[in-house]
Design brief:
Length: 486
Amino acid sequence: MKEYDVTIIGLGPTGGTLANLIALQGFSVLILEREKSFYPLPRAVHFDDEIMRIFQTIGITKDFLKHTIINKGTKFVNSKGKVVLDWPRPRSLTENGWYPSYRFNQPDLEKQLRKKLKKYKKVEIKQNSEVSKIKNFKDYVKIKFKNVIINNPEEIKSKYVIGCDGANSITRSQINTKMDNLGFTQKWAVVDLILKKEKKNLPDRTIQYSNSKQPATYCRNVGKRRRWEFAIKKNQSEKKILSNFYIWNFLKPWLKKNEALIERKTIYTFKSAISRKWKKGRIFIAGDAAHLMPPFMGQGMCAGIRDVSNLAWKIAKCLRSNHNEKLLKTYQSERFSNVKEYVETTMRMGEFVNAVGSYKITDNISSTNDGTKSMQSIKPKLGKGLGQKTDKNRGKIFPQFKTKNGYHLDEKFSKEPILLYSSKVKKNMLNKINSIKSNKVKGLSIYLKKSNSKALIVRPDRFILASLQLNKNFDNFLKKNINILI
Ligand SMILES: Cc1cc2nc3c(=O)[nH]c(=O)nc-3n(C[C@H](O)[C@H](O)[C@H](O)COP(=O)(O)OP(=O)(O)OC[C@H]3O[C@@H](n4cnc5c(N)ncnc54)[C@H](O)[C@@H]3O)c2cc1C
């Protein structure tokens, strides 16, 4: 029976990102995907700076950037056309080294992820392959699947399996767990259009129409692509809603029929739910298999990509040394509260768009001079897991710095944790680990000072594992963290 280090079920954006992150670490990967090719129509249209940083690690940003635009933010408009809340995305680089928010077309991303995977000799992709059974053993997992064209059953062994198999995940049912519904369920129509000509009077931002009669969203997507989404009432006929007559009538305030082509029209049920368990033995779930959220914040796919960025280096560490149950268990505990905050914030946004909730979507809302409310993006820390609860820096994202001789720290250190230390720290154990002195990195000494630290350990997923306040504890600090550092 053929054996792999890692098997990934599902080659959507979550599976494609995970496969790249594991392949980058040099391990063998099998990807089993039920469909013949990728889903050709867009779903996700937005991602943020944290996610671009993960794409940077994978090495796709150079080509992929050409297919993106910088997102200028969102305005919430009431039924009288007045802006009641603004969510600006300033056109300046963030601490992650990228713009706060981007727009893209999902098939372009999936193409880039697959193109990159082709470069790895140890990556095998089996399309038309549907997984039906996954069984945990002490040191490996057995997976049964069949080729859906020729109906040919196969079985393989893998040291770890990750189900990135979407909302109806078979992996989730195999680990015997359930999704908890967090309370938002609503049907929305989604209409993607391609403009025939530039239309200057269409907004350059996302507009959320906060209106109890017809909650709706407009998205300014890449190139000539534009999207409208609108809520459907329980008694409305889906067939009627999706008729060209109804859609063009809905679009009348913005577009005439001869000005754009409908690329696709469909109805989704927007849900908010999180799986109780994300792991059983050597089997994991990630992405939509583990959580679902309505798309008002454009964070569903982003959450899946954050999952696998958290998980990939932990699995790689287990493959390089030994299986470490304690380490792998921190995957769910660190990701759960982070994703829950996104789901709950998105739900509040959905309620506001439905004009039944308050504008207080996040804790970070301020009033501008003209009285408009302005909202900031959330950046939740990791949930409890690796590192000390008492350490204030632990679980925060670490900024992307450049060294004084011009390279990005992220690009130099993408596989293993690094130790960043002020020049004042004694260096007894330093030759064993990846480490860099703060005076070699632009802005790092100031950052250390601001975070009241003499040294920091940064994990490969760019989160801070630990910080040290006093020089004299340096050896202890290293000893305590050495099992993660090497
Ligand atoms: C209208 C809409 C707009 C959205 N906008 C955004 C946005 O702007 N930003 C954002 O971040 N998110 C957005 N989302 C959410 C985002 O699209 C999803 O979160 C994301 O696509 C999930 O990716 P995934 O890889 O986890 O799952 P999927 O993309 O669902 O991929 C799962 C894959 O697993 C395969 N599979 C399933 N079962 C099996 C099996 N048994 N064997 C083998 N293969 C299997 C499937 O064929 C599929 O290819 C939006 C969603 C919707 C509906």
